[in-house]
Amino acid sequence: MRIFAPAKINVGLRVLGKKEGDTYHGIESIFQTVGLCDEIEVGLVPGRGQCSVSCDAMSLPEDNTITRTYRSFVGLTGCGDSVSVSIKKRIPAGGGLGGGSSDAASFLRALADLNGISLDSGLSDAVAGDVGSDVFFFLGLRSGFGAALVSGRGEVVREIRARDLHVVLVLPDVFSSTKEAYSLLDREYGEEGDVGGYIDFESYEDEYNGAVRGWRFRNSFTRVLSAVHPEIGEAVGALLESGAEFADMSGSGSSVFGVFSSRETASSAAYALGRRWRCVLA
Q1: Can you tell me the distance from the alpha carbon of 199 to that of 203, in angstroms, rounded to the nearest whole number?
Q2: d(CA 76, CA 72)
Q3: Which candidate among 93, 103, 110, 158 keeps its CA 20 to 30 Å from the CA of 4?
């Protein structure tokens, strides 16, 4: 099977405080897929219990989101035929675009199809819980593409109607690990999280459907990451100067996105900013 795994952007991302006895922060965000995709080929091969993974753009560690998905699926279903997975990587790692999680979700759908297994919510939630929080979002979309309100640790997903936005992704040559981002955030705000300047989560969907130029969304990570990696803040500023109606970092960085009023203005901005950064029109 050949499948496509889309990147996502965060339209707003508030990091909440840790609940008593919990080691993880909660979040409030809108996740939306965009037209930058990894391409994955999955095939059954002779043998049992083996999952071999190759990637054209990078050397993957032995323990990765694909192998974790395979182990979880086999453990939960008992379907242990060996598989071969080949990934054409287009979504940058460490960019806050959810590439690894999207790959895992798309791979799980393929595994279920190849084995004749119904991918119900119980199975998808169990695998997502084993593999990573962002996987819940990608598995929660009926078509695999779209938008959703996401909260909790990422496991609470409510799909909403996605807007057809003209987006320019700017990909600075900066690697931001999730661990680094949360460490910087904890140092800045403590365990209570980022508490100031946010609209109520109940208003996110209405805000999202309103005029983009008036969006009041914020990403908790943008300021603290930009202080360490100034290129992130420079990319946000450059997008706004190029005509973006809204611009911010996605996830825990370092990718930045701008939303434009038309494909023409977005295309012009991508061309101009492409002289300095890798840009993707999506």
Answers
A1: 7
A2: 6
A3: 158
Identify residue 278 by its one-letter amino acid code: R
Report residue 33: phi and psi, to 5°: -75, 155
pLDDT, tens only, 90-106: 998 888 999 999 999 99
**Packing angle between helix 121-131 and helix 65-77, nearest 10 degrees?**
140
Burial of 23 (0-12, 13-18, 19+ CB in 10 A): exposed
User: Of 193, 152, 179, nearest to 15 (Cα)?
Assistant: 193
Q: Show which residues are catalytic.
A: 8, 134
Element (H, E) at 59: none
pLDDT surpasses 90 at 66: yes
Exposure class string for 205-216: b at 16+ Cβ within 10 A, else e: bebbeeebeebe
Bridge partner list, 2? 41
Query: What is the pTM for the complete model shown?
Result: 0.94
Tell me, what amino acid is at 118?
A: S
Residue 83 has φ and ψ, to the nearest 5°, of -135, 155
Distances in Å between the Cα of 237 and the Cα atoms of 27, 96, 220, 222 are: 25, 18, 17, 12
Supply the DSSP symbol for 108.
H
| The predicted structure's pLDDT at residue 170 | 97
DSSP character string of 98-116: -HHHHHHHHHHHHHHHHTT
Measured CA to CA, the distance from residue 119 to residue 115 in angstroms comes to 11
H/E element, 140: helix 134-140
HSE of 140 in the Cβ direction (CA atoms, 13 Å)? 24
